[in-house]
Amino acid sequence: MKLLILLIILIINLKLYLCNLEIENLFIEWTNKYNKIYSNKEFYMRFNNFKKNKEYVDQWNEKQLETILELNFFADLSRNEYINNYLASFIDISNIEQKNTKYEGNLKNNFNNSIKSIDWRNFDAVTPVKNQGLCSGAGYSFSAIGVIESSHFIKNKELITLSEQNIIDCTTDMGNNGCMGGLALIAFDYIIKQKGIDSEFNYPYEGYLIEPYEGRGRCRYNSFYSKASISSYIEIERFNENELTQSLIKSPVSVMIDASQLSFMLYKSGVYKDPSCSSTILNHGILNIGFGVTPENGNEYYILKNSFGSKWGMKGYIYLSRNFNNHCGISSVGISVVI
């Protein structure tokens, strides 16, 4: 009897060993794919994160939900590391007052329900996906710049890649916090005040808040190099997805969401739904470039351009559930601009 118990224990341990070896081999393949290099001490910490994330992805995908996850380049991070290194501080949107709620074309009374989808990429109105890197809270600058780039194209038929670094460096005196987070509406106030924004070429992205140097401030904006400007901006009525959808027919919209869930971090494809998402506690600025309906089952979604690079999600994009109780706060903050 004792021999049988010992044999069972040995078999169980062997299975665990082989399973762990299989995951470790998978992890090594993953590190080669994403060019990850660790010290000996860090290797096992990253491996443990990877193993936990693999278990999470496997369990999620086994449910065969609309949202599909993968072991992407974030797979060696814990959720807390992801939040701290790639997202802004949480903002309770209920504490921020709307101040510029004008509705062009009387949208509130003139809904156009005949348009079932729009994707501004199809009009060549969206610049390529960018990567904020470790400038953790910079999503607001990418969201703000993205809506100006697209709106400038829609009016002037000229697609210019504009400078997020200009916003990161130059709006701290107005209330934004550089790489620690900020609000797109403050960026718009700054651009209106300065009567312009620089190009990415003239004011390239550094991925961190530039420190003052040689007796000068950190902001290097020169109006001589301004490549685009806005005259005003419009805050879409809060928590109103009809208003958001109607605004998207005219142009992309700068929005904020809760991007803090592991499911968002490890998103691969499909319409994103996670009941853990908050609709009012938000931490990531992102660009909404359209909406649509899945042909398979008629699920409505928004098309969001993220700032995690083109290897995340669907070549840098995510479909987020539309008309699903303000999912992840998608209609809690929405701003379009007037060129």
TrEMBL record:
<dbReference type="InterPro" id="IPR013201">
    <property type="entry name" value="Prot_inhib_I29"/>
</dbReference>
<dbReference type="InterPro" id="IPR038765">
    <property type="entry name" value="Papain-like_cys_pep_sf"/>
</dbReference>
<dbReference type="GO" id="GO:0005615">
    <property type="term" value="C:extracellular space"/>
</dbReference>
<feature type="domain" description="Cathepsin propeptide inhibitor">
    <location>
        <begin position="27"/>
        <end position="82"/>
    </location>
</feature>
<dbReference type="GO" id="GO:0004197">
    <property type="term" value="F:cysteine-type endopeptidase activity"/>
</dbReference>
<dbReference type="InterPro" id="IPR000668">
    <property type="entry name" value="Peptidase_C1A_C"/>
</dbReference>
<keyword id="KW-0732">Signal</keyword>
<dbReference type="GO" id="GO:0051603">
    <property type="term" value="P:proteolysis involved in protein catabolic process"/>
</dbReference>
<dbReference type="GO" id="GO:2001235">
    <property type="term" value="P:positive regulation of apoptotic signaling pathway"/>
</dbReference>
<comment type="similarity">
    <text>Belongs to the peptidase C1 family.</text>
</comment>
<dbReference type="GO" id="GO:0008656">
    <property type="term" value="F:cysteine-type endopeptidase activator activity involved in apoptotic process"/>
</dbReference>
<dbReference type="InterPro" id="IPR039417">
    <property type="entry name" value="Peptidase_C1A_papain-like"/>
</dbReference>
<dbReference type="Pfam" id="PF08246">
    <property type="entry name" value="Inhibitor_I29"/>
</dbReference>
<dbReference type="Pfam" id="PF00112">
    <property type="entry name" value="Peptidase_C1"/>
</dbReference>
<protein>
    <submittedName>
        <fullName>Uncharacterized protein</fullName>
    </submittedName>
</protein>
<feature type="domain" description="Peptidase C1A papain C-terminal">
    <location>
        <begin position="116"/>
        <end position="339"/>
    </location>
</feature>
<dbReference type="GO" id="GO:0006955">
    <property type="term" value="P:immune response"/>
</dbReference>
<dbReference type="GO" id="GO:0005764">
    <property type="term" value="C:lysosome"/>
</dbReference>
<dbReference type="InterPro" id="IPR013128">
    <property type="entry name" value="Peptidase_C1A"/>
</dbReference>
<feature type="signal peptide">
    <location>
        <begin position="1"/>
        <end position="19"/>
    </location>
</feature>
